[in-house]
Amino acid sequence: MPCSRKCWYAWDQAQAVLGKDFRVTGDRGKLIPSDLAANVIATVHQSSILRAQDDESRHSQLESFINDLRFVAQVIRGVRPRAERARDKLRS
Q1: Distance (Å, rounded) from C-alpha 15 to C-alpha 4?
Q2: 3 inside domain
Q3: Is the pLDDT confidence value at 11 over 60?
Q4: How confident is the model over 10-20, as a mean pLDDT?
Q5: With contact defined as beta carbons under 8 Å apart, do 61 and 67 qualify?
Q6: Within-domain flag for 54
Q7: Which domain holds residue 26?
Q8: Cα(first)–Cα(last) distance of the chain, in Å?
Q9: Neighbour tally for 43: CB within 10 Å
Q10: Looking at residue 38, what DSSP letter applies?
Q11: Chain centroid to CA 12: how far?
Q12: Of 5, 27, 29, 36, which one has the fewest beta carbons inside 10 Å?
């Protein structure tokens, strides 16, 4: 059932919806082709950042999470035209 926006935080839920080849470690922060919505983007759950083993990795993971959210904001605002987004996805 198509929807305007969805967020899945657990990897097993994401795989159930986005396919068994989906990996949050490799696919996070990117547009993911899907019939669910015009734009589907996955990221990690915030609690995974808090569970990082040390301050350096926690800071790095937080920075990546923030970048994912910035990308989501750009897509929502339409900063990147749909044709450009599709072209980017084909290249990755």
Answers
A1: 19
A2: no
A3: no
A4: 75
A5: no
A6: yes
A7: 11-91
A8: 26
A9: 23
A10: S
A11: 14
A12: 5
Amino acid at residue number 15: Q
% of the chain surpassing 70 pLDDT: 73
Asked if residue 17 belongs to a domain, the reply is yes
Return the structure tokens found at 71. Answer: 């990308």
Tally the C-alpha atoms within 13 A of residue 58's C-alpha that lie toward its C-beta.
7
* The pair of three-digit structure tokens given for residue 22, joined into one six-digit string: 């989906």
Q: Mean per-residue pLDDT for 36-62?
A: 90
Instruction: At 38, list the tokens.
Output: 């015009």
8 A C-beta contact, residue 31 and residue 75 = yes
Residue 6 lies in a domain: no
Q: Which residue in this structure is represented by tokens 């657990």?
A: 10
Domain count, the chain: 1
Asked if 31 and 67 touch (Cβ cutoff 8 Å), the reply is no
